[in-house]
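stuck on this chain:
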Amino acid sequence: MKRLHKESFRQKLQHIVLLPGTKWVCCFLITFLLGGQLLTAAPSNATQSQSQQSEGSRISGKVTDDQGEPLIGVTIACKGTSRGTITDVNGKYSLEVRPSDVLVVSYVGYKRQIIPYTGQLELNIKMLPDIKSLNEVVVVGYGTQKAKNITGSIATVNMQKATELPVGNLTEALSGQIAGLSVNDGSSRPGDNTSTMQIRQVFNFSKNQGTPLPLVVIDGVIQIDPTSGLPTLDQFNMLDPSEIQSISILRDASAAIYGARGTQGVIIVTTKHGQIGAPKISYSAKFEIDNAVSFEKTLNAYQYGVFANSFLQASGVTNPTNLYSTDELNQMKTLNYNWLKEAWKPAGLMQHSINVSGGSQKATYFVGASYYTQGANLENQNYNRYTFRAGTDAEIASNLHLNGSVSANSGKQTQSFTKVVSAINDGSYGSYAGGEQADYGYLLHMPQYIPWSYNVNGTTQYVSPALSPAKVSGNATSANAIADWNYFAILNSGSAQTNTSNSYTANFTLRYDIPYVKGLSVSGQYARTYETDNNEQDAMPFTLALATNTNTLDNHLYTSSTTWKVAQNNKNSRVVYSNQLSENEQMNFFINYAGSFGKNNISAMAAAERSTQSVQNNYYEYDNPLAGAYNGASSSAGTLDVSNSYTTKTSLGTLSYFGRVNYNYADKYLAQFILRADASTKFAPANYWGLFPTLSLGWIASEEPWFRKEFGWVDYFKVRASVGETGKDNITAYEWEQLYTYNANKGLGFGSNGGSLVSGLTTNVTPTPNLRWDSTVKYDLGFDGNVLNNRLSFSLDGYFDRNTNLLTQMASAANVPITAGGAYAEQNYANLNDWGAEISINWKDKIGKVNH
């Protein structure tokens, strides 16, 4: 019979975090790990004896670490079969074996063991620690290397820590994890993936397409914005941490393997693949409640009135008509209209992920899915995200291997859209800009004697918050003053913004190991990403009641004697539909070789890469929709603004050739050489190609006999140095030649009184025919070491980047003669030097059963 055996269960309270001053977050993480194996019903004694002879028997035992403590979740598999199991919470296991079986025992952080089965019924196994920081395989550009043999400045991310953090996207999860990697948090709105990253310093003077973002590579696929051709974090932030195997950060000249796009560094993401053995099911859930501990203190209604009178009197106002009376101040003591508390509510976050993996020696599989939802403390804002990933590694024929994966994600973001009054410019109540970014400021600072709604002539109306003891401010339909803003009126009008994105990626690699040349292989990769982004902005009309006589004596508060003007605000009312359809296609071809000759170890790679991006943008604006009439269809959205609606199409492409050679002697003396050539049609044909070389060297001093004798307390010590060149093409295409703009009615005039204007061409910026790649030469000197029985590890880097011929906007560097007009295109003009140092220190130890 088939039975699902629960091998381990783990539940823990993850975080109770008190965020300084404003919010508290309570987050729970629940994780289940289930392993399955196939069992058979127990036969009779005679049958059982025959079965044991022909089909094998059952072996059991316990797996411990070098201190005798049981290990949970250790994989014990029969090599070349699908039979396997994992240890339970006590480190125990049981597995059906046959006489010819070979057991493969593996566990993260410990050395893999291969044990032939010799007929025993009990087998206890002791696992020895693997010095992971030295022997683990680290993903580098277009390949992998042992950590101890790396000659560049490459860091890896602890994904377990990243998974447990209460953050909304992967960018925020990397904050503080890697020296030299800076994360700038963006908006806290659900689904607003506006957080950015940068590696070391940013060097860019271009006005057109400069970016501080590093290049992101996911399973070999370069993540590029199809419109600008620059790095993007969009797909990176859609990843669920549960589907990520590793993240490597290339900080120095080792990023030159990616050419021009790697100038700001590279982040390489490898997603999970299947593992040999019985199916393993992993489920995790995270729950979070987000609320305010307190708000910034503001004046209550009475305090505001007293302060306003004092301020006005100090400013020379003496007319009682322009001051709050004593009766009004006494009445303010009873008023408490707190706009922020009315709008505020607790917010929740929930994340679920589940994946299953397993397989045999011939093929493995991984399937995972996740769901993430996040709410906000202010109304009508939420975000939902779904992800799916499936992949397989299979030997489909002798020496022929297929790696394939299909992934998809979908996200929907809903926001309030108070941008309908984005032109607020009177600096009222603590905010100096309109739109949804100012909502919190207005709500917090709104005087608490002003209600958000009031009974006007027997009907409850949202009111214009324009009360003033000195004047009547603006009008309820101005669209440029606080008088036309009311948070609750705008929300209830149906004004909102939705952003929906859907994408899928198919990624396949076929590798053939040449049978007659050991270590030689050829491979090809094809990846295609299709993405749609749909955006809808609904700015609906809304009605406000404006008090018109609050500038008279003893009438500065809403009373039965208040006179009202009720009006509908139609300013900026519109419906906008916009969508972007993009495709990214990438093809790679690789030749790889790795071999050893005595103490000489060499590996080499040569490759070609071709990528294309195409994008179509559609934008349609409808003006003046009728209040309450819009039903989601364009036929009810108002009148199409033809002059402000458009469709654009853009295509980009790159062609690159690159290679790498690694050499080490006795795993002690290390060298690496990288060369990449990129072509960019942004430059004139004579300057299409940029050539980017890198050389790095390393010396593992701790492998020297004299070093071990003199510094026995040092377990590992390496010195490394690198120098390499990268470049950028972050400018608008075709600035090397003269471009023109067609104007239908702005040409010359013919006839009397100016005549009729005819169509004509106007020149764009003055071209720069000799535009070429800018240059960044990166120098890095680093030291890596482990001491105290590998419990203390450190890494120290010093770097210097020399940037020359930077592409620079010339408007501030030189004036354009009035006789010429126009403006200069960018030129290779500026130089910039950057330098700095990075240090990382880690301590790992065990006290009793506690790891720290």
In short: The chain is about 10% helix and 50% strand. Residues 1-25, 36-54, 470-474 have pLDDT under 50 and may be disordered. The longest strand covers residues 574-597. The longest helix spans residues 301-314.
